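Researcher: I'm preparing a figure for a lab meeting and need a structural model of a single chain. I don't have an experimental structure, so a prediction will have to do for now. The sequence is pasted below. Please return the structure as tokens so I can convert it later.
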Amino acid sequence: MKFHEIIQPVSHPGIINHYHSSRPHMHSLKCKGKWTLLLFSSGKFRIMGPIMNVDAVIDFVLGLLPRRTSLSESPVLQTETFTFSIGRSINLYLFKKSNQADRLIQYEPELFSALRLLYWSPINVNVFHTGKIVVMGAKSRELLPTIYDYVNTLFSCTSQFTF
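Model: Understood. Here is the structure written out token by token.
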């Protein structure tokens, strides 16, 4: 049985439960002002927002299932997203121009406003001109300290690319 067939509506004043029947089929659980949990029919789920304890979220998801429900697979964490700021603006055009030969740096401002660093595949690191950094991927929690240090070194306050 798939999650979308057995998930129970959440009756909690702080959580909004919505089933999306269009593709992809999913349940969206929104906790007001905190996080959103997308639960896909494949058993995968996506957490958006500040969740520090993934195991607690898995327990929460399993608690939504009717008693004695057996799943063919356990829930699987699909991806995580983290954000931070380096506190400086960045000249992304100049940075890309200075690193044209590096195929792991992508910047096409007509298509997407962030510079993408692809050194940690399958993790994507998006660098915005404001100094905001978005780190997305299944292993991003483990590599976050490394990525944070690398980006801060790359765009330090003495860098020619920051102002």
